[in-house]
Write a structure and sequence with these properties.
heterodimer; A: alpha/beta; seven-stranded mixed beta sheet; two-stranded antiparallel ribbon; 9 strands; elongated; B: mainly alpha; three-stranded antiparallel beta sheet; 48 helices
Chain lengths: ~450, ~1150
């Protein structure tokens, strides 16, 4: 990819230039206004405005060099420069798949809008949310999520896009089909407008992804929704677990009750409920650094090795795609950066990919016995410094020793020292044995429905 | 017990010297530092020398005058040492016993501490920790382990950070031990420790010193006693204070007197004159003008009462009661018999196992605790005999619900049982029980039928008797109640023993299974959101055995049963209700102490005591015919319609399926799983309902031939409650129906009419008819009434459709008997007739706001027919709905024909008590669900819609209410924002404080699990503004409500009426309904003739806005204009002349 290295170099220079110029721009409002009005300088303005959301140092495994799209996307629409190679690609593939072409006039990059305006609108949101407004950040995310040119099937669900910066960036990056699920009415109008300008690449649904499939009673009305309605409306049908990834979800996990959400989603995954009825849904979520650390905690980290981490590690390939400081996001409330209480650092939001393993439901685990596995894991990891054998004997007296030796684990191993894969294998062994199916553990699972533990 | 050891350890002083020099509690000059370590150094393991008086002197010389005086006392006491050597030697000899890892029991006589003394100002801040220290010391001393106590106190004292947690009372606990032993020099040392800690000796300290002198034949009265008295005087304490404020155990008081009389021959303590003056003008007449009063008497002779006292005493002494359940009547099947045998066998085995496990765990605890300053459970495990702990644990197994119990609850219950037993034992140790007997027997003279009439209230009588029989121990306990965390820790320890040791053979029920020893209880977690809750669950085998055995013996804590004799009258904050079982005057959140502190400070609680005593003195008996009918249904198949929970045999069967069976599809499995879940859920609900009913019925059955009493206490707003938790007159329709007054009174000319009106009220019909209308209605259905009474189960069953069917049936029977008697006016009835007292909070608001429209709709202003606010609101809601329906609102159309009084009633009633829209919606949702033909799919929307209409409607009808509520809320918000807790005093003088604070977490680390306690009542945390503000209006109204009830209770008592209350529903005999209504109305007017809001405003301003605070806090605005005025005369004259009592019953949901 020679072009990309070249453009990245170019871009680096460009960015430095902009950073220095932005200082001037910010000083005078009128100047900023002018800059916004003038198409030629609009890219400068985009970088310049955000004292509020300037991207601080970020840890991106892909490196800052991949800003080619950023440069490209800054091109104002009126400025008809020839599209970059990747853009051409997008149009070609779009044509190939859908068998239809967008009108020529729409071939241009979608304008990301004025940064200042986007910030204002994001901040006006009544709910406490984080927003991606910074185009660079949006680019980074888009690069991670946007499909390979070969992958033409998967749909992108973008959760709570707000002013739609990432949405446009995704489309610009060549996404074939983006569904935005926006839970706040105030953003809907503009999103619908965008939808109208496009030709089926974008669908806008008034829906909060993180409120899908509520447990309580009451009327379910948007933005709360049931998965089957959402998928039926989108014309998507249930898929086999081993099929390709049908949907990539991208978004920011709400800061309120992160862990509860993660637990709820893990339960749904194991029992193939909610979105997971439709196949292996891949999540690309920004979660707080603190929860991420717990999510990927390894056996032996007694403080942080928790049930929800074990479950996710068991079910998914987990990949840290990108780390971005909190300050780079626009927040619709005063306390943007969480207090850093606790032992774990929490300076970043981490973009984490959770891709369910295709072979999860082989070798004895099924969605119907998964609830027992969930219960077992939760019981085991409620305390990490207890002996696994004691737990096992509690469920089925005298069988702990046999199981452990079958597993090749030492007799005195602590529950906090067992790897997720080992837990899975342990469960498979238990599930096969007559003794355990008669144990109260199985009764217990039935009592404590899968819903317990949902937020 | 071990003076030798105690001394040795006392002497390990150097560390505390170090601690002293490293910071110094007093602003001492540097030159005194080197002196301090020398203080109190005696030989420790043969290394140190004895304390020299000279050293003490040196120290004194460098001190300020005041401390010099105090040290002089310790010096004097030291001087007494020479004369006490003999006694030391004597005790030394006694202590020469072998190393006592397990303490000898004979030391337990030395359980002398003084803890009731008010904590010093600086001490009060340490609350919980201090309480832990005290209860630990007291426990050590109770078990005779003086050495452990002494070591612990010193280790606390030595380190400055820990010393800060001590107060004089803590030191006094040790002093009291030494006083009991007559060892004066130890007391002297503790005086020095006090001085070092910068604390002042208080009454308790001096009392211990004097007691010790009294016990010491060689003590020279002229020097030590005299100087002690002088010192007291300088500290501003008088001898009379000593006798009126201290709590004495055993012969302490006599010793004290002996010591004092040695220097002041002929001294006689003069008790504080009884303060007759009650500041509240509301009860001024009640206390001062008694000529017209005729207090009611019991229908029992003094002899009978005394016999019952003895019975009650033995019940309480045992702490538990085992009674036959009503299921005894069922035939015993072969399987039941087998299971009972099996269980009994296992139980014997378990008892043995637990005995052993307990012994072992005690041994470990006794030996492993190396650090003296750490609190250790060991003493708490020695307070009772091992067998008693074992019984408590076995009881825990027997009462375990099949679905398990959270560890926290189980541990609390077990710990609390130990505490109760410990308190009862203490009373026996302190020899307070004999004295209780003698005072009680004199007290019965006031109540018995065969004694002369007097115009003395029970509390006054008791106080007088206590004063007359002043020698010997005080009756009033001074037990330190254990901090919640200690109770829990002890309980958790017991649970741990149970979980680890109680096992059963897995093949016990099914011999084909492999034999394994499996635990009968297991510890696991359930998960609520991201939290995990530790649970103790019984093994399915145990559950099966217990359910099949259907054991017919029930064991209860003794306080669960009603009392067999009239309760001890409340005479102080710490004394009243049961004979031995500790009872709190005010129920509080577990661990909250602010209420008690406030109560102890307040001077004029007499009216509150008197009304509680009055409620507790009402004698009850069982309505036997009704009980029999209920039991027959209960032992048959129950009846959901009549609120008799069916037996478990009626529970839905739990479907069985094999989840591995490939024949089922995934969705079939999911469906079956859900069925299983539902069946189990239903089963466990049914079980708890069934058990609750079983308890109530069994208690009633056990009491069927008795006369009994419910001692009362109150919550923090002054609402009164009977103490026995399951069976009482506050319960459901079923329980209420089983109770009648023990005393009968003739119906009198109007009694039968009142019974009939009462019956109509119970049916819930004719809500908008006048009393006359209701009476006419009752007369028109006499046939149904008589039929119900004669043939309740197989007749026309008219009663079954009443709102309160069982009470209605009981009333039918009473009417039938009365109507058929030769002269109904002379018919003796025991039946309680209910009248709604102040109706509800809306009345108080309307009266406070002088709100005439609102007042009319709640019957404060006369009308031809009783107004019914609920119907009024329903009507208004209906009008709004009709309008919306015409405008095409879908949900309004759906609701056509469904809006009734019943739908809105609960919400209207609770709005004034602060129900939110959220809660209101839930209430309405529940009502709508009850309507059979209401479309289920609309319930959600309809409830949302209706709650909005109800709230808006109320806002319009009660404008004044709104204003007052807003003012209260705003005041509370300002107070809370400034970091204060909202406090007020009811017109009757009861102090109230809202215990809502920001939550603090406390972790109890035990081996079984860490328990996280969320403490939201800690007064050191900032107040929780949202709660303070939202709860103030309803709490304030509740406090007025309770004041009104108390006033009514007092005045009914003086009129000789039988009176009890269920919050704002008042009960009396049919004969006296009119009198009670009159009293009730008069007291309502009297209460609201007080400038209540003005006084509240003054109180708040004075309390929160004085001095510097004024700067920080905006003054609460004056109360709304209309309400701060003095009573509008015409308003009240209307009220008094015209009000018809609104005779309606309130449902048991009222609380």
């Amino acid at each position: 990819m020679a072009s990309s290295t070249m453009s990245s170099h170019l871009c680096g220079v460009l960015e430095r230039m902009m950073r220095s110029s932005c200082c001037h721009v910010i000083r005078s409002r009128s100047c900023l206004g002018q800059a916004v009005l003038a198409p030629a300088t609009s890219s400068v303005c985009v970088h310049g405005a955000p004292l509020l959301h300037r991207r601080a140092y970020s840890l991106d495994p892909l490196g800052p060099g991949r800003l080619s799209l950023a440069a490209g996307s800054q091109q104002p629409r009126s400025d008809r420069t020839p599209p970059s190679p990747s853009l051409t690609y997008r149009n070609l593939s779009a044509a190939a798949v859908k068998g239809q072409f967008r009108p020529l006039s729409r071939f241009d990059y979608l304008d990301l809008g004025k940064v200042e305006e986007n910030i204002r609108r994001a901040q006006a949101c009544k709910k406490r949310r984080h927003f991606i407004v910074n185009p660079d950040l949006a680019n980074v995310v888009a690069r991670h999520v946007a499909p390979d040119p070969q992958d033409t099937k998967s749909v992108i669900f973008e959760c709570n896009p707000g002013p739609g910066v990432l949405t446009r960036t995704l489309l610009n990056a060549g996404a074939q089909r983006v569904v935005v699920l926006e839970g706040d009415r105030s953003f809907l109008h503009d999103l619908h407008e965008l939808e109208g300008h496009l030709d089926g690449q974008l669908e806008v649904v008034y829906c909060d992804y993180f409120k899908l499939d509520p447990i309580g009673s009451g009327n379910v009305k948007p933005p709360t929704m049931f998965t089957d309605k959402l998928f039926t409306d989108l014309g998507m049908s249930e898929a086999s677990w081993t099929d390709d990834i049908p949907v990539k979800v991208v978004g920011i996990l709400p800061q309120r009750n992160e862990r509860g959400m993660l637990l709820k989603m893990a339960y749904a995954l194991f029992e193939r409920l909610s979105v997971y009825r439709y196949g292996r849904i891949e999540l690309n979520l920004f979660i707080s650094e603190r929860e991420y650390k717990k999510l990927v905690a390894q056996p032996g980290e007694m403080r942080y090795y928790r049930a929800f981490g074990v479950l996710w590690q068991m079910a998914c390939d987990i990949e840290l795609l990108h780390k971005e400081p909190w300050e780079s996001f626009v927040v619709s409330s005063k306390q943007g950066v969480p207090s850093s209480k606790g032992m774990l650092p929490n300076d970043y939001l981490c973009l984490v990919r959770l891709r369910p393993r295709a072979d999860l439901f082989s070798k004895g685990l099924t969605p119907s016995n998964a609830s027992t596995l969930l219960m077992m894991i939760k019981q085991c990891l409620a305390k990490r410094k207890v002996k696994l054998i004691d737990r096992l004997n509690l469920w089925s007296p005298d069988s702990g020793s046999r199981l452990l030796s079958e597993m090749g684990l030492p007799e005195d191993i602590l529950t906090g020292h067992v790897y997720p894969e080992e837990y899975l294998r342990l469960f498979q062994l238990m599930d096969k044995s007559q003794e355990f199916t008669q144990s109260w553990l199985y009764e217990e699972i039935l009592e404590n429905t899968q819903r317990e533990g949902w937020a | 017990s071990d003076v030798q050891h105690a001394k040795v350890h006392f002497v390990k002083v150097p560390p505390f010297g170090r601690a002293f020099s490293s910071g110094g509690t007093h602003k001492g000059s540097p030159q005194e530092k080197p002196d301090i370590p020398k203080l109190g150094q005696t030989s420790s393991k043969g290394t140190k020398n004895t304390m020299a008086t000279g050293t003490t002197h040196k120290t004194i010389s460098s001190k300020a005058k005041q401390s010099r005086e105090r040290l002089k006392l310790s010096e004097e006491i030291q001087a007494g040492v020479s004369s006490t050597t003999a006694s030391i030697k004597a005790s030394k000899k006694k202590q020469k016993d072998p190393k006592n890892t397990v303490p000898d029991r004979d030391g337990k006589g030395d359980t002398s501490q003084r803890s009731h003394l008010k904590p010093d100002a600086e001490g009060a801040a340490c609350g919980d920790i201090q309480l832990s220290i005290r209860s630990y010391l007291e426990a050590c001393i109770f078990i005779g382990d003086v050495e452990r106590a002494q070591r612990f106190l010193l280790s606390q004292h030595r380190v400055r950070s820990r010393r800060k947690l001590l107060n004089t009372g803590v030191y006094n606990i040790m002093m009291r031990v030494w006083a009991k032993k007559g060892i004066l020099n130890q007391i002297g040392r503790i005086f020095i420790l006090l001085e070092e800690a910068g604390l002042k000796p208080n009454l308790g300290s001096y009392s211990a010193a004097l007691e010790c002198m009294g016990r010491n034949p060689n003590c020279s009265p002229k020097t030590s006693t005299r100087s002690c008295l002088n010192q007291m005087e300088e500290d501003g304490l008088t001898l009379d204070d000593l006798f009126s404020d201290c709590v004495f155990r055993r012969d302490e008081k006599d010793m004290l007197l002996k010591a004092i009389r040695a220097v002041e021959p002929g001294y006689e303590p003069r008790p504080h004159p009884l303060t007759d003056e009650c500041p509240s003008p509301l009860v001024h007449h009640f206390y001062t003008q008694r000529e017209q009063h005729s207090y009611p008497k019991l229908a029992l002779s003094q002899e009978e009462l005394l016999e019952r006292f003895q019975q009650q005493l033995s019940v309480e002494r045992a702490c538990t009661v085992t009674i036959d359940s009503v299921e005894t009547a069922k035939p015993v099947t072969e399987n039941m018999r087998k299971m009972r045998e099996l269980l009994a066998e296992q139980r014997t085995h378990w008892e043995k196992i637990l005995h052993q496990a307990l012994r072992e765990s005690k041994l470990i605890l006794a030996n492993t605790n190396t650090r003296d300053y750490r609190l250790n459970l060991y003493p708490y495990l020695c307070l009772l005999e091992d067998g008693e702990y074992v019984d408590i644990m076995i009881q825990g197994v027997a009462n375990m619900p099949p679905s398990g119990e959270s560890l926290k609850v189980l541990a609390r219950d077990l710990g609390h049982r130990v505490y109760t037993k410990y308190c009862v034992r203490q009373k026996f140790e302190n020899q307070a029980v004999e004295k209780l007997g003698s005072i009680y027997s004199a007290y019965t003279e006031l109540l018995a039928k065969d004694t002369k009439v007097s115009r003395v209230l029970p509390r006054e009588q008791w106080t007088r008797l206590q004063m007359e029989q002043s020698s010997g121990p005080s009756l009033q306990g001074d037990d330190t109640s254990w901090p919640h965390i200690v109770t829990l820790e002890l309980g958790t320890h017991l649970v741990d023993i149970m979980v680890k040791n109680l096992k059963i053979n897995s093949d016990i029920l099914n011999p084909s299974q492999d034999r394994k020893l499996i635990p009968i209880l297991y510890h696991m977690y359930t998960f609520r959101s991201t939290r995990q809750v530790g649970f103790i669950k019984p093994h399915p085998i145990l559950v099966q055995m217990q359910q099949e055995a259907m054991e017919t013996r029930l064991t209860f804590d003794s306080y669960v049963m009603p009392m067999l004799c009239p309760p001890v009258p409340w005479t102080s904050v710490k004394f009243g209700a049961y004979l031995l079982t500790p009872t709190k005057l005010m129920r509080t959140v577990e661990g909250a102490t602010q209420h008690e502190q406030l109560l102890e400070k307040s001077q004029h609680l007499e009216p509150v005591f008197d009304s509680l005593n009055q409620l507790g003195n009402c004698a009850w008996k069982i309505n036997k015919p009704l009980l029999d009918i209920i039991i027959s249904i209960f032992n048959d198949r129950g009846s959901d319609k009549l609120d008799i929970p069916p037996p478990m045999s009626e529970a839905p069967k739990i479907p069985h399926f094999n989840p591995q069976d490939p024949a089922y599809t995934a969705s079939q499995k999911a469906l079956m799983k859900r069925e299983v879940i539902n069946a189990k859920k239903k089963g466990s609900e049914m079980h708890s309902l069934r058990m609750d009913a079983l308890y109530k019925l069994s208690i009633a059955h056990h009491m069927r031939e008795e006369t009994f009493w419910f001692p009362h206490n109150m919550d923090f707003r002054g609402r009164t409650y009977p103490c026995p938790p399951y069976f009482n007159h506050l319960g459901s329709d079923v329980t209420r129906a089983m109770l009648v007054f023990a005393e009968g009174k003739p119906l009198g000319p109007k009694g039968l009419d009142w019974l009939k009106i009462h019956l109509v009220n119970l049916t819930g019909l004719k809500k908008r008819s006048s009393l006359q209308g209701r009476l006419e209605y009752a007369n028109s259905i006499m046939e149904d009434i008589l039929n119900s009474a004669d043939n309740p189960l197989h007749g026309r069953k008219w009663w079954m459709n009443a709102d309160e069917p069982w009470q209605a049936l009981a009333c039918c029977m009473e009417i039938a008997r009365a109507a058929r008697s030769s002269d109904p006016a002379k018919f003796v009835s025991h039946f309680p007739v209910h009248q709604d007292g102040s109706c509800n909070g809306l009345q108080h608001y309307a009266a406070l706001g002088r709100d005439v429209i609102g007042a009319t709709s709640v019957n404060l202003v006369p009308c031809d027919v009783p107004q019914d606010v609920y119907s009024g609101v329903a009507q208004q809601v209906e009008e709004l709905r009709a309008r919306d329906a015409r405008d095409g609102l879908k949900i309004a159309q759906v609701l056509e024909g469904f809006i009734s009084r019943k739908v809105v009633k609960q919400t209207v009633m609770t709005v004034v008590y602060g129900v939110t829209r959220y809660g209101g919606r839930l209430q309405i949702e529940k009502r709508l669900k009850e309507i059979e033909n209401f479309p289920k799919e609309h319930i959600w929307d309809a409830s949302h819609y209706l709650v909005r209409l109800v709230f808006n409607g109320l806002k319009e009808m009660f404008t004044g209410t709104r204003e007052i509520q807003d003012w209260l809320t705003e005041s509370a918000r300002l107070i809370s924002k400034c970091g204060h807790t909202v406090e007020w005093v009811t017109p009757l003088g009861l102090p109230i404080i809202q215990p809502y604070h920001r939550t603090r977490n406390q972790v109890l680390k035990s081996s079984i699990q860490h328990i996280n306690l969320q403490i939201s009542h800690d007064s050191k945390e900032r107040p929780d503004t949202v709660k303070q503000k939202n709860a103030f209006p309803p709490n304030f109204i509740h406090s007025l409500d309770s004041t009104h009830m108390m006033l009514t209770a007092l005045h009914c008592y003086s009129a000789g009426l039988t009176f009890v209350s269920v919050h704002d529903c008042f009960w009396t005999h049919a004969l006296t309904v009119d009198t009670m209504n009159k009293v009730c109305r008069e007291q309502f007017v009297a209460l609201h003739s007080q400038p209540i809001l003005q006084e509240l405003s003054d109180f708040l301003l004075h309390k929160y806005c004085s001095g510097t605070l004024e700067v920080q806090m905006k003054r609460p605005e004056a109360p709304p204009s209309g309400s701060s005025h003095f009573p509008n005369i015409s308003f009240f004259s209307l009220f008094v002349s015209g009000l018809k009592p609104k005779a309606k019953s309130i449902r048991s949901t009222g609380g």
